[in-house]
């Protein structure tokens, strides 16, 4: 596993960080976003969406569990899923949304609160990356740790 650390002190830092992380990945991929409530998980997804040329307003899908968008990555169309598992206690809602059936498309899935499901995200057979967001030394700053190397093993 490779870990890369980023320091966030302004909105432009979110955009720079998202761009840096996306350039280290390929599609399809799942990004697991961890951190306490209000730390900036959705803000990271908004910054990633900007890098992926998504024009719609990005908001947390807390109540409908998943939002999907169409963006561009490496000059190709890509499906982007924003999933919020905060209210989930199992993977059942994901099964109901047919998310598992969508994983054969070129896609990025940004998953907030992945630990709420008990799901082994590597079971889907695509690269899984972790983005851990924590409060910095100054409460308005954030630390982002990007971890690569979590892959499904056949």
Task: Describe this structure as you would to a colleague.
This protein is of the alpha/beta class and 154 residues long. 18% of the residues lie in helices and 34% in strands. It is built from three helices and seven strands, in the order E-H-E-H-E-E-H-E-E-E. The protein has a seven-stranded mixed sheet with strand order 1-7-6-2-5-4-3, with helices on one face. The relative contact order is 0.26.
Number of helices: 3
Largest sheet: spatial strand order: 1-7-6-2-5-4-3
The major beta sheet can be summarized as:
7 strands, mixed
Shape type: globular
What is the CA-CA span between the terminal residues? 18 Å
Structural class: alpha/beta
Number of strands: 7
Are there runs of 5+ residues with pLDDT below 50, and where? none
User: Using only CA atoms, what is the Rg?
Assistant: 15 Å
The portion of residues assigned to helices is 10-25%
**Percent of residues in beta strands:** 25-35%
SSE succession: EHEHEEHEEE
Q: Whole-number average pLDDT?
A: 87
Summary of the model, kept short:
By secondary structure, the protein is of the alpha/beta class.
Secondary structure topology:
Layout: E1 2-8, H1 11-22, E2 29-34, H2 41-51, E3 66-73, E4 76-84, H3 92-96, E5 107-112, E6 128-135, E7 142-150
Parallel strand pairs: 2-5, 2-6, 4-5
Antiparallel strand pairs: 1-7, 3-4, 6-7
Helix pairs in contact: 1-2
Keywords:
154 residues, alpha/beta, seven-stranded mixed β-sheet, single chain, 18% helix
């Amino acid at each position: 596993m490779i870990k890369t650390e980023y320091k966030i002190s302004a909105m432009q830092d979110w955009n720079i960080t998202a761009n840096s992380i996306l350039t280290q990945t390929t599609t399809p991929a799942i990004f697991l976003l961890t951190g306490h409530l209000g730390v900036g998980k959705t803000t990271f997804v908004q910054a990633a969406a900007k890098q992926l040329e998504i024009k719609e307003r990005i908001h947390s899908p807390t109540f409908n569990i998943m939002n999907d968008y169409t963006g561009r990555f490496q000059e190709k169309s890509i499906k982007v899923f924003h999933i919020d598992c905060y209210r989930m206690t199992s993977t059942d809602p994901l099964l109901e949304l047919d998310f598992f059936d969508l994983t054969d498309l070129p896609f990025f899935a940004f998953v907030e609160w992945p630990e709420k499901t008990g799901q082994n995200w590597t079971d889907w057979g695509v690269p899984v990356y972790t983005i851990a967001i924590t409060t910095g030394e100054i409460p308005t700053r954030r630390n982002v740790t990007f971890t690569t190397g979590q892959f499904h093993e056949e």
